[in-house]
Amino acid sequence: MKRLLLSAVVSAWLCTTAQAAELSPLKSDSEPDRTDWSQLDTRYGPMPKADKSLKIGGVSKTLTNEYWRLLGQGYKNAAQRYGVIVEYQAAANEADQLGQLSIAETMIAQGFSGLLVSPQTDINLEPALQTATSRQIPVVNVNDAVMPNAPHYVGNVQKDNGVRVAQWFIQHKPQGGKLAVIEGQPGVYAAGQRTRGFKETIALHNTFNIVASVPANWSREQAYNAASTILQQHPDLIGFYANNDTMALGVVEAVRALNKADQVAVLGTDGISDAYASIKRGELTGTVDSFPVLTGEVAMDVMLRLIGGQTISRVVATPQALITKDNAEAFSTKDNEKLRQLLMAH
């Protein structure tokens, strides 16, 4: 039954693709029609006054991962600021593609004014996008899977996550050595781009050798198991790059269990609070923070500009920064305005 339902999703996606031929397939990292998050006011003017009756739906991947909870907090912060209503829902887990699709379709049927969606995969919400588009309901794809037919995307440059981590290894481990990658979910644009950015940058320096690159599907447990196996096969490994912090923290557990914390550096991506705490304790080496609360605020800003009639570029790029023990304290500020200023100066 599940295979039949997934086949229906794919069929609907193909129909959407045919109907959206005027839009080239979206590749958010390289899309030329883009605006930096800090330039919205400069380029498009002030926010239009929002109708207080607007009801915006947020459709997330899961609430078990702190990143997605923080993204929802960003939606709520902005909704409160502009006086609109937001309802934030998520699938049961990061593999519940049909459950997430059902949430999006229900919101459309209930007459929501716009949808902010973070798809499980690049195609599982395409049927909902097709329906919303036919009803002139604006849809913004918000990190990290990318729907090919998405008219608007808000998020960071995914490939740059991996590039930044690779640059850390090149700078801090100039003698080189064996490295491993713990990938996210296969078929998700963000996971592929993060891994590609890391591998392409590392390949420019022949002192490094990537000896393993395996998916752990965003799971801490799967990452722990994968890292344990890799460390047993390559006891002289010097570092891991994990496609998100949940997996990176699983890798940290594996490294510590084998008493290799002094030998093996571990870097992740997302900037969740557990990652910051681990960095400050001297366990996790670093993370590429993509600032989910701020991303959620920017995405709501973009949605309300679209509803207000502004023509916004297809991609609005949000900030990121490599966090290590050297700057973790500064970037963990709870002062939102101070963080914005810090990022603009970064």
Automatic annotation (TrEMBL):
MF terms (GO), sorted A to Z: carbohydrate binding
Protein name stated in the entry: Monosaccharide ABC transporter substrate-binding protein (CUT2 family)
Subcellular localization, as worded in the UniProt entry: Cell envelope
GO CC annotations, alphabetized: cell envelope
Pfam families in the cross-refs: Peripla_BP_4 (PF13407)
Organism: Ectopseudomonas oleovorans
InterPro entries, alphabetized: Peripla_BP_I, SBP_2_dom
Domain of life: Bacteria
Leader sequence residues: 1-20
Location, primary (coarse class): other
GO-annotated biological processes: transmembrane transport
Keywords: Signal
Family: Belongs to the bacterial solute-binding protein 2 family.
Keyword field contains Signal: yes
Highest classification ranks of the organism: Bacteria, Pseudomonadati, Pseudomonadota, Gammaproteobacteria, Pseudomonadales
Region listing for Disordered, in residue ranges: 24-44
Domain Periplasmic binding protein residue range list: 57-310
CDD domains associated with the record: PBP1_allose_binding
Keyword Hydrolase: no
